[in-house]
Amino acid sequence: MTKIDPHFADELKKYGAKDFDACFNCGNCSAVCSHSEKTVSFPRMTLRLGMLGLKKDILSSVEPWLCYSCGDCTETCPRQAGPGQYLAAVRRYAISEYEPTGLTRLIFKNPPAFVAVTMLIAVFLGFFLFTLKPEHEVARWIFNWLPYDVIHNLGLVIFGFTGLSMAWGVLSMIIRLNRNDDKNVTSKVGIFKAIWMVLSEAGTMDRYKDCDAEEDSHWRGKPWYIQPWFVHWSIMWGFIGLLVATSLDFIFKDPATTIWWPSRILGTISGLFMIFGTSQAINYRWKKVTLIYSESSPADWTFLWFLWIAGITGFWLETSVALGADNIATQLVFLVHTIISMELVLLFAFSKFAHAFYRPIALFYHYRNQA
Questions:
Q1: Residue 2 lies in a domain
Q2: Using an 8 Å Cβ cutoff, are 63 and 51 in contact?
Q3: 261-299: burial string, b at 16+ Cβ within 10 Å, e else
Q4: What's the pLDDT tens digit per position in 55-69?
């Protein structure tokens, strides 16, 4: 039995959807979308599901994750229903429903509370970092009134809890998509081929490139390196590269002291990409170069600035290592860099960054059903 929720439209508006219930199903948004296909007529179908309050159908659909927010649908909507913003809101809603803690709802629906939570996490991470250097004078002062074991073990529990929350969300999405998998497609693409197609998209952003290829696109004819697809690519792979480089240093318990160490080289290249991508994204949102960049939530700004600061402070530390500089300023920069980097990892499962996991899964199911 299909259950309809008449209040679902109001719920989605709390996640950033606008007057999508003004839609009269003309189909103009699907007509202009470069990704609308024979079997995927978004955003028209997803809009309809939202208007009818069919939450289960939305959460078990791949369509919201196939959108790259180019904004063409919103710009051409005759009813100003904001289909592009609607799909972004659906993705936020889906992330909040997949993960079990409720923290995602807080991040997306209550900006002041989100700021308070990020500050609280930053303070705790600062304490946690001193457990990694217990000989530090400030660390000894802290441990006089808050035991080392309490801080350190609590930190490990929180990181483990974050990992479990991400795993829960991914599993929840897979279960829902399996229930809605198209059983009528008998000649499905093979699993390994579908995985390769997903990896290829992550490496090339070919689908994203299609968004900017339309003749009337703002980005048409502009250099590839300033187009949104490459900005997104730079941020994504820059962050992944830095995460891998940091993990290698942590695993070997002996962070490299030379810039020519492989993990350092990887970190340097990745950091350059991430700084470039975040700088461009911040610039586009600041100047509101297109409609899609003109509306940014506090969470959008926060995470972009976090990434940018993490990149800049990383290069400060890289330079300090190369010059052998070890002073109070460098120690403070190290503290800021590490707190922000750890906070980004902690909030990964609860923010828009989670789409780095959810979108590839949706793309896998989408490619599998291509006969």
A1: no
A2: no
A3: bebbebbbebbebbbbbbbbbbebbeeeebbbbebbbeb
A4: 888 999 998 998 888
Name the amino acid, one letter, at 128. Answer: F
Query: 183 falls in which pLDDT band (50, 70, 90)?
Result: low
pLDDT per residue over 74-108, tens digit each? 888 888 888 888 998 999 999 999 988 888 888 88
**Residue 190 within a domain:** yes
Please indicate, yes or no, whether residues 108 and 18 belong to a single structural domain of this protein: no
Contacts of 230 (CB under 8 A, 6+ apart): 205, 224, 277
Q: Of 64, 98, 132, which marks where a domain is finished?
A: 98
The domain boundary residue, chosen from 52, 81, 98: 98
Q: Rounded to an integer, what distance in angstroms lies between the CA atom of residue 110 and that of residue 15?
A: 10
CA angle 332, 336, 339 (to 5 degrees): 135
Full domain range(s) for residue 41: 8-98
Contacts of 84 (CB under 8 A, 6+ apart): 43, 67, 69, 70, 71, 72, 73, 74, 291, 292
| Whole-angstrom distance, CA of residue 244 vs CA of residue 270 | 10
Based on the fold, state whether residues 67 and 154 are members of the same structural domain.
no
